[in-house]
Amino acid sequence: MYRRLPSKGLQAAAITDHHDFALFPYIRRAAQAETDDSGQLLPEAERLIVFPGLELTIGVPCQAILILDADFPDDKLDAVLEALSVEVIEADKDVLPPVTRIDHIQTFEQLHETLDTRPWLQGRYIILPNVTDGGYKTLMRSGMQAKYKNMPCVGGYLDGTVEAKAKPTSGNRRIFDGLDANWGSKRLALFQTSDSRSRDFKDLGKHSSWVKWARPTAEAIRQACLAQESRIAHTPPALPGVYIASVHVSNSKFLGPVELAFNRQYNAIIGGRGTGKSTILDYVRWCLGDVPASVAADGEPAGATRRRRLIEATLASLEAEVEVVVIINGIEHVVRRSSTTGEINFKVGDGEFTKVSEASIQSLLPIHAYSQKQLSSVSVRMEELTRFVTAPIRQSLEAKDADIRNAADLLRQNYASLQRARSLKEAIERAQLTEQSLIDQSAHLRGSLAGLSQDDQVILQQRPAVDRSREAVSSWRRNANQLSDATGVLLAEAERLVAQLPPLPPDAPDGLTVELTVARQATVAAGEAFAAALHGAVEELQAALCGDGSAGQALEVMHQRFAALDADYEEVKGRSTAHAQQLQQLADIEARRKQVAVQLIALRTDLHQLGDPFSEHATLRAKLVQLHKERSQLLRTQSDGVTELSGGLLKVDLMRGHGLQAVDERLRALAAGSGVRAAKFEALFEGLKAESDPLATWEALLSEFEQLILLDDGDEFTTQLTPTLSRLGLTLTDQQKLRTKLTVGSWLDLALTPIEDCPVFCYRTKEEEYIPFEAASAGQQATALLKVLLSQTGMPLIIDQPEEDLDSQVIQDVVSWLWQSKGRRQVLFASHNANLVVNGDAELVVACDYRRAGDQSGGRIKLTGAIDIPELRDEITHVMEGGEKAFKLRRDKYGF
Fold this sequence. Notes:
Elements: E1 12-15, H1 24-32, E2 49-58, E3 62-68, H2 77-83, H3 108-116, E4 125-129, H4 145-150, E5 155-159, H5 162-165, H6 171-176, E6 189-193, E7 210-211, H7 218-226, H8 228-231, E8 232-233, E9 242-249, E10 258-261, E11 266-270, H9 277-287, H10 304-314, E12 321-328, E13 331-338, E14 344-348, E15 354-356, H11 358-364, E16 368-370, H12 382-390, H13 394-448, H14 454-499, H15 510-545, H16 550-575, H17 580-609, H18 613-645, E17 650-659, H19 661-670, H20 678-690, H21 694-710, H22 723-727, H23 732-739, H24 744-751, E18 756-766, E19 769-772, H25 778-791, E20 797-800, H26 811-821, E21 827-830, H27 834-838, E22 844-852, E23 855-865, H28 870-879, H29 883-892
Parallel strand pairs: 1-2, 5-6, 11-21, 11-22, 16-20, 20-21
Antiparallel strand pairs: 2-3, 3-4, 7-8, 9-10, 9-12, 12-13, 13-14, 14-15, 17-18, 18-19, 22-23
């Protein structure tokens, strides 16, 4: 873990002085007695860790720092000085004597040999020479190449910061990076230091370094030096924000109960074959609902059958549960799954467990996982390759897909209104024609009546205008009543919203309570004022519409006036007995016209209430197209990112609008039985793929399909109506056949079927030369994909035995990728390859073993810890392929 001292931003400190330990015991005791703000003793894990150390001036000549284990006993400190032939000074002395250089030690090899003559000191110290640029006490001086080249030291210290004292452009930095053969091509890890000489300790911890260890020992610091890329930092280190914190298995026939905490960075599970490495990963993946994208021949996800059998055989009979804890940005998410029912219960933080679906867990807690040898076979299925593009942006894509579904649902709902509007417009058009015919017929009959007085003729001629006025008044009354009803609904909604205004947050900060109260009261007052004003307006409207109101009285006057005009009209008809037959015809026509007029009013009202579904359809369709473009842009950006992350090994091009399988299947299904040959559809979609903008062409095709539905049987049918369908090979005869199968519902399903974007992968064989990805070897494919996976940021990465997918010569490349990856995402590998574990510098090693030697019927977790723990190093050396060579390689890269 990374450590810094609490009060100074540090959690650990090495206390050194020239040839003297006098100050150290006091600081150690103070740290052990450290208390919190309430005066309570801090838990041991939170106390300052203090390493004893010496600042040595030796006959190399240069200075060096010796650091001992943090738990090195006080009573052995004087013996360390004696081993160096340094005089022990009594602690009660007021003044220390001048520092005398230890001239009998002329090299760092001799210094180590001197200390190692004491068995109790072996492995409990580390030497860090002064490698500051310039000065007579530093190793980095002219003529010191041989001393540097031959020393067994793996780290050094700077008086100040790396940025100031070992710039990447400086000659010394090339030496430290092992790039200068004159200095032995020896790599050296660097530590920043600060002299604290003032009484106020203002410089204490001013220049610090982050060091990762499992136990605070000199060996841990040495191991950190050997893996400086991932264990030493001089700026705050990056750590994954999303990681699997632990897995708990209540019981297992194979492993027994499992309680395993993971590191948030790189975890390696090791052990002999059949000891449970893969089982642990499978339990985690099963609990989190991980389903590989590839599908086996039986249609089930690859590996799912084996995993199901594993759960049934090892967990179900014991009614065991698996619980996995995932941390997302500091918040604990707990997934608990039953092996008997498969039921998943889930909680966030301090919340309660609730039952959720597997899909919900996959969405909220995604992982990127591969089984044995799966990484080198992903090119067999496009879904697996596509996952390399989609997995890191899965949540963004899901959010965009949700927007697309919502827009599609709104479009589907609106299309029903659009169809209703089309029907209403057609009905209105028919009613208007009928009305005009009846108006013309009644006018002709009135004009044919002879022998009537001039007054009677005026009454007859005014009849149509009277009827239209009556219809207008009737519409006004109906609209006024609808307005009254609508405002009543609005008033009820306003009162509801005011009444349901959320209360103050129960955990509101004290400093905000008054302001929050005022803000809520003001909001309530504004809402109540609006509701009161609306209530008054409703009452005024209803009063105006009632019998005594202004509108009610006016409408009643009009009712009486129409009654009088009706009476006059009937009198005229009664006096015209000579025209009885014509008057009866006129009466019938007027009755029919009134019916049509009432029908028109109702149709127009219904159409008005629908709003403008045609414009709404165009808006929603444009929004849907835009959302698909935005989704494509997410994929395009990520595809370019995959190309960049692969270091040029891969090239990913996004073919927009080329994923036509779903719409192809939908169109063929709706055309079944039409007689259109399959070859015509194949040609249609091949032509669509060849278009410069397939999606724009598809929109044109959809529009033409809709025109086929709307076409009346008697309408002229030409290629001008469907130019795109005709251009892409569907003849007018084919279109006529297809038209018999098209319905509004099937067309809408087709229109809302998404067209996918297809990433196309290529593998680079040499500079600017690429081959189709599937043509590359399995090892080449796995290497390129693993580089991408280890370069991506985000969800945990789980791979079971990645070395089985890789060519042996790329293992060291994978090691360097791991160093960078662990700061971006959590990695869990089960592995037999010691180089991946040792030189990849796993923060946590989980060592599995047989319950009984050689018996593969049961496994167990034997050890967990980091490489700086001796027992783990021994286990790696004994059980892993190439374990001893891996540790030697770890050492050899430092040039000794």
